[in-house]
Amino acid sequence: xxxxxxxxxxxxxxxxxxGIILFAGAALLFQARTVARTWxxxxxxxxxxxxxxxxxxxxxxxxxxxxxxxxxxxxxxxxGGVYKTKVRVIKDLVERFGFRVxxxxxxxxxxxxxxxxxxxxRGSSDEALEGLFGVWRSEEVRELLEWMRRxxxxxxxxxxxxxxxxxxxxxxxxxxxxxxxREAIPDQAEVLVDGLSTCAGVRFASQEEFxxxxxxxxxxxxxxxxxxxxxxxxxxxxxxxxxxxRAGSSEIFAxxxxxxxxxxxxxxxxxxxxxxxxxxxxxxxxPRDEGMAEAFLALRSLNFPEAKTVLWSANLHISQRPIxxxxxxxxxxxxxxxxxxxxxxxxxxxxxxxxxxxxETDWPMIPNPPPPTISRSLPKILHDLDVEDVLVDLTIFNxxxxxxxxxxxxxxxxxxxxxxDHFRALIFVDHSPPARxxxxxx
Length: 442
What we know:
- 47% of the residues lie in helices and 12% in strands.
- By secondary structure, it is α/β, with parallel strands linked by helices.
- The chain has an eight-stranded mixed beta sheet. A two-stranded antiparallel sheet has the order 6-7.
- A hairpin with a 6-residue loop joins strand 10 (408-409) and strand 11 (416-417).
- Helix 5 crosses helix 7 (139-154), helix 11 (222-245) runs antiparallel to helix 12 (250-273) and helix 12 packs antiparallel against helix 13 (285-303).
- The radius of gyration is 25 Å and the shape is globular.
- Residues 1-10, 28-38 and 51-55 have low confidence and may be disordered.
């Protein structure tokens, strides 16, 4: 009988049909396993991957209901599972919850290249990616930009937009300030511009040139630092005087102020870059993060007022409370961007950390961290619960072990923290493989 069965010629069509049935069966079994896992999830833990409707609503319902800004973080850049999850969450926030701006931790002037691509379709998604930091130039982010472009074609009266907010762009800010001063205050412009001559990076045309010539951390003397900051202060005073005399041009002066504050924040942060490996180094974090918060709030208000915004950054930057400083630092804690955003936006600012149990990256200079082993580690707790791709509402979730004193490493340079103190929610991916990078980071 077995020999007779083996001798039957099924034919290509029947073999194809059998293959489809087997594939569909395997897919259904996978979904059944995924859905079964959701039946015993602890309170506050929501599965992100299931074909069935959510019994208690969409996992993002509570977070998105009253949010004006949802910030999505990551422990390390260039991890593909985390990137893909962020992209999926952004799509849901756009489609279901009316978010219309995506803001990236990348210099804001260069990011205009992405906004131009989304709004006009000129160029390609690869060319648009050139407007982002190298750590974001991946297939996952490219897929997000292409999806946003398709959305705009299908919804011409309800477009999604893009912006950057990083202030690591002294070459652009110096150029913009010079142009503005020569037009608005021509009799003072050259003296004021000369006052910025000792600011780090202003004599270079781009980040690539700056890093090539200086290694990314130039030596800055106290005298050079003081002269630069004095020049910034003089321009600030001149702008205030000029603004008071030019009615109706408040937006122009507001944009000049963004460049000025960005240059000041960059200078304060860059000064401490030369002390890498010492206790002084960590003092550069707060100036940059305060500058990013100010740039984000100002540019969003100028370009997309009242628009619900998804912010893409790192866990370190989005925390709503100060982050503990590492051992050996003179500081006890560090105020980061999220602290300043939470102060301004209140409860409408919703920081969501992303992490993984097994985290892999495509960042050659940074080794992949080993999976956590301590019992209070939240990624280990979730891994031991046999869950993957879940959103954890930290205001509800009470871990089986460790109670509300769970920990996780927000950044490889910093101590473990209690996530409930710093984030509204956490998205957990059990295994996040490396991102599919299109170009090594710059």
